[in-house]
Amino acid sequence: MSPAAPDVSGAVPTAGEDGTAGMRVRLSGLRAIVGEVSSPARTDAASSGRGADPSGQGAMVSARGLCKAYGSFTAVDGIDVEVRRGEAFGFLGPNGAGKSSTMRMIAAVSPPGGGELRVLGLDPATHGSQIRSRLGVCPQEDTLDTELTVRENLLIYGRYFGLSRRHVAAKADELLGFFQLTEKRGARVDDLSGGLKRRLTIARSLINDPDLLLLDEPTTGLDPQARHTLWDKLFRLRQQGVTLVLTTHYMDEAEQLCDRLVVMDGGRIVAEGSPLQLIREHATREVAELRFGVGDHAEVAATVADLADRVEVLPDRILLYTDDGEEALAKVHERGLSPVAMLARRATLEDVFLRLTGRTLVD
Predict the structure, then answer these.
(1) Torsion angle (degrees, nearest 10) of CA 345, 346, 350, 353
(2) What values do phi and psi take at 308, rounded to 5?
(3) Cβ distance 196 to 162 under 8 Å?
(4) Domain of 290, in residue numbers
(5) Where is the ABC transporter domain (predicted)?
(6) What pLDDT was estimated at residue 91?
(7) Is residue 173 part of a domain?
(8) Could you tell me the pTM of the whole model?
(9) Which pLDDT score, from 0 to 100, does residue 119 have?
(10) What pLDDT, on the 0 to 100 scale, is given for residue 242?
(11) Which of 63, 69, 313, 330 is in the most buried spot, having the most CB atoms within 10 Å?
C-alpha cells in the first residue's frame, strides 16, 4: 500500500480518529518537513521495504563533492561528508556557511546541485520519499499546531507516516514520558514555555522511529536551564543508538553533543574531527584572556605577543594562546600591565573557530 501524500494544509480527521473528530488541522509547515511520504506504510514499530544496506554497516549519510548554488551564489562548494551509524555528527559554522543548505539536501527536500549524495544508502534524486519516511526532522523554527493539544500534535503527525492509530497512540505516550511532557499532554501549545515547545518538536520528529534524526539549531533561543535539559535528552537518544545530525551556533553545545563535526565557512569544510581532536590540532592547551579599556587592545597586544604561541585581538579582549595560562597572566603583571579583567581557561571550540575563520561564530 502506498498512500498519497496528505494535504497537510487543511486536513480534517475522520470521525473518532485519535479523538480529534471534526477538528480542522492546519499543521503549518508539515509539507516541508514530511515531504511526500509515499513509501510503504509503516504499521508497526518496524517498517517494510527498508531498501539499501540491509547489513546496517554502511554510512547513514555519504557525500562526495556535494554542491549547491542559488543563481550565482554558491552555498555549498564541493564538500565530502560521512555520517556513521549511531553517532552524533555536527555542522558548525557562521550564518551563510552552507549548513542549512547541506541539511536540506540530506533531508531530501532540496536537490543537490552537483556531486554525489547518499542518505541511508539511497539516492535522494530517485528515492526521496523513501528517505523522508525514515527521517526525523526538527526544524530551526517550531512548526507546532497551536490549536491542538500536546498529545494531538504527536497523534496527527504520526498518521502522516501511515502508522496505525494504535501504534501512534502508544508511541506518543512513550515520547511524552521520555521528554517529561506527560503532565502537559492535554495542554494547548500556546500555553507551553519555549523549552517545552522545543521538547515537543523533537518528540514529534521521533514519532516514526526514524533511522536518522536531523536537528537544525535545536536549542536556539532557549535559556541555559532549558538547553541543558534538552542536551540531556539528546544525549540519551544517542546512547540508545539514534544517529543525530545537527547544526548549531553554540560551540559548547557541539562539544557536549557531537562525536565528530565539521567546521564550514564559505560553503566549504575547513576542519573535521572530534571536538578534542580539533582543539588539539588548532589551539593550545590553555588560553589567557585579558580585558583592557575600549580601544586599547590592539596596542597592548603588541607588548605581550611574545608571551604566547599566538595572540588574537578581539573588540572586547585579547586572547593569549599558550600551554600555561596562569604563567602567561603572571608575566603580564610583571610587565606592569593592569587589565580590567583577566582569566585563564582551557581551550574550546570557539578558539578553534577563531583560528580557522578569523571571526566569532555569530558574526
Answers:
(1) 130
(2) -145, 160
(3) no
(4) 284-347
(5) 61-291
(6) 95
(7) no
(8) 0.80
(9) 97
(10) 92
(11) 63
Given a contact cutoff of 8 angstroms between Cβ atoms, the answer to whether 358 and 350 are in contact is no
- Would you say residue 218 lies in a domain? no
Can you tell me the distance from the alpha carbon of 140 to that of 227, in angstroms, rounded to the nearest whole number?
Answer: 14
Give the pLDDT confidence score for residue 249 in this predicted structure: 80
Assign 81 to helix, strand or coil.
Answer: strand
What is the tally of structural domains in the chain?
Answer: 1
Q: Give a yes or no: residue 261 inside a domain.
A: no
Q: What are phi and psi of 75, to 5 degrees?
A: -85, -40
What CATH number should be reported for the domain holding residue 299?
3.30.70
Region of residue 266 (phi > 0: left; psi between -120 and 50: alpha; otherwise: beta): left
The DSSP code for 99 is H
Within-domain flag for 340:
yes
Q: What is the pLDDT of residue 360?
A: 52
Residue 52: predicted pLDDT: 44
Q: What is the 3-state secondary structure (H, E, C) of 168-197?
A: HHHHHHHHHHHCCCHHHCCCEHHHCCHHHH
Strands 286-291, 317-322: parallel, antiparallel or unpaired by DSSP?
antiparallel
Contact 196/181 with Cβ under 8 angstroms?
yes
Of 182, 176, 220, the closest CA to residue 198 belongs to 220
DSSP state of 229: H
